[in-house]
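Appendix B, record 7
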Amino acid sequence: MSRIGKMPIMVPAGVEVAVEGQHVRVKGPKGTLERTLRPNVQVSIAEGRIEILPVDESGEARAQWGLSRSLVANMVDGVSKGFRRHLELAGVGYRASKQGSKLVLTVGYSHPVEIEPPEGIDFEVPNPTNVFVNGYDKETVGAVAAKIRGVRPPEPYKGKGIHYKDEKIIRKVGKTGKK
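Structure tokens (predicted):
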């Protein structure tokens, strides 16, 4: 039995959920998300709760059960509360700014790097060394944050680069002098 799959998903006020076969559509104050689930699971809605059950007891159906429940729960959380990733810039002269909706990064290259946000994503730059990626789709927020981090990943000797807020950077020891 899937411990995650067994838990029902509570639908908060202001969120509408529609199920048509394997297609799930969730609409809320932040936006609308749609997903087609695998045929190994079935979705039912009753009394403000969404329950996902496997069609049979095969290993494939049990594997998709918890995954499908997590995906639908992330959709419900996203359209009601939204998701946020926090990135930090570490390095002398490294800074971020927002020009219109674009994020402009100055991270040691000969040119500034501009990142255009996809639909449903918003950048927030409270100060030049912190960037917040906000959105209602968890996968897109994570992908955009990873793209920003990939512009200048943290290096292990001085720790310079772009990293997530709580990311632990494993540091290496530099060369020692000759004796």
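Remarks on this record: The first strand starts at residue 9 and ends at 10. The helical segments are 3-6, 59-80, 138-151.
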